[in-house]
Design brief:
The structure is a single chain. The chain is mostly beta strands and about 180 residues long. It has one domain. The protein has helices at about 20-30, 35-45; strands spanning about 1-20, 50-55, 60-65, 70-75, 80, 90, 100-120, 130-140, 145-150, 155, 160, 165-175, 180-185. Strands 1, 2, 3, 4, 5, 6, 7, 8, 9, 10, 11, 12 and 13 form a 13-stranded mixed beta sheet that branches. The longest helix is centred in the N-terminal third of the chain and has 9 residues, at about 35-45. The chain is elongated and about 60 Å long. The N and C termini lie far apart (about 50 Å).
Length: about 180
Amino acid sequence: MNKYRIETSGKTCHYQISNLKDNEVNDIELGEMGYGEIEEKFLWDKTVLENRKLIFDTEIQFRIYDEDNNVILQFASNEIDHTTVDGVVFCPEPKFNNDFQNTLCYFDIWKGSGPVYEFESNDKLQVDDFSYTLFTFDSEEDVLFFINDLYFKNNKIEETDFGETWGDSSWIRVFKNDGSNFLVS
């Protein structure tokens, strides 16, 4: 079997989602907690959902290397198909998501390299053999699309590492159980 490594580049997002009580939301909304305190109290090892994914809204580049570190195939995200199988949709608003009383959503956007994948195959590699599933963050304020998983010939490829990135922007939004929401400044 031939071993291959896929390096990706584009924008990535580290997102963290936490469940908040009403009094915690009030403390944040009234400005009684700064960004650092919010991060420490609700995000560090206390998130319900956390991941780092490629943002699909921007062009993503894929470079495939062989065992000798030669680029043997490269393509962009708009050249491959997505599959609807195993796609994930997350809706943060408590009125649509019974798992959350109030939802704190932290998004940290990065530029540069993305996930690194590794796989083995004896087949000749072609762009048409690759596909992906999406993770959709769907709220009344924002709809964000991320590549959830990458596939070769309908087999999930293992993500083994993450490349070098640098910061671009970040924000925190709280979705309240009364249907309103606000950005944390």
